[in-house]
Amino acid sequence: MWHAYNMVQVGDYLRGTTIRKVTLESSTGSVSANKVRTMLNIEVEAVDFDSQACVLRVKGRNVSENQYVKLGAYHTLDLELNRKFTLGKHHWDSIALERLDYACDPTQHADLAAVVMQEGLAHVCLITSCMTLVRAKLETHIPRKRRGSCEQHTKGLNRFYDQILQAILRHVNFEVVKCVLIASPGFVKDQFSEYLFSQAIKQDLKVITENKSKFVLVHSSSGFKHSLKEVLADPTVTARLADTKAAGEVRALDDFYQMLQNDPDRAFYGIKPIEKAAELNAIETLMVSDELFRSNDIKKRKRYVKLVDLVRDNGGDVKIFSSLHVSGEQLGQLSGVAAILRYPMSDEMSDED
């Protein structure tokens, strides 16, 4: 559905089944309202994506009249999983075609789950190739240790750990997920891991014991969602997740920040200087947020598609970041487009050229 959201744009034509409320008047003058299923073809005017319900709402005017809906009448189509639809565009650009290929290739998906935690706070997240979804946020008050008595503290911790265990069982599908990261500052992750596997044996939770090898313990600075960035950048994690898109994006963004610090003439952000650098075949890695390709401004969209095509033609590497990933959010703060150059180029030089 995320891929569909990125492909359906204002001005496209969308055909799909929908339920429409129809008012009928009989020969005697009585009025009755019925709901009928009909096929509609609309010209898209607005697109909205609900990431939690995984539903895409597309609003537009009807462009082919049928017995229930007049020509030009507004309607909103709800697209969801396993509901067929047909998408028509005036022009299929390289970004849309690439996304179509990617969405249709199951080998390109390497899904990951993560539990980012600290004492009393935990986030259970699912990281797909397109977005980071927080499936559960757990907050519990844990009593402090008192001199001579740790009983209340231990009980509070065990209650907290049990909530996380239940959230993992509820939200993590081990048939799809290839790795579960458990991240925390200090020894919290080690204590939770010990509790998790002892409870799995005690309660005979085969789904945990059979997938024990998928759990990886890593350090994070806190139990908040933004700590995922440093977790995904951890060398032990990147070795396990070498094939995931999310880890590649984080690595590229880290390289950019390093370059910005050590050799700022080889790290550009903002569309104008990057376009100049692309014309001079100077871009080694281009990072673009997918948000820019969803712009309602067709000229703006074409501008970014042209930039991506130019960099690829010149042998550069292009990474399209998802705006629902932590790394994509950070790139969005840098204007949504950044690049690492092959050779140093000052801003003044690109402006003069």
TrEMBL record:
Transmembrane residue ranges: none
Organism: Lottia gigantea
Subcellular location(s) per record: Cytoplasm
NCBIfam families membership: pelota (TIGR00111)
Full protein name: Protein pelota homolog
Family to which this protein belongs: Belongs to the eukaryotic release factor 1 family. Pelota subfamily.
Cofactor(s) of this protein: a divalent metal cation
Molecular-function GO term, any one: metal ion binding
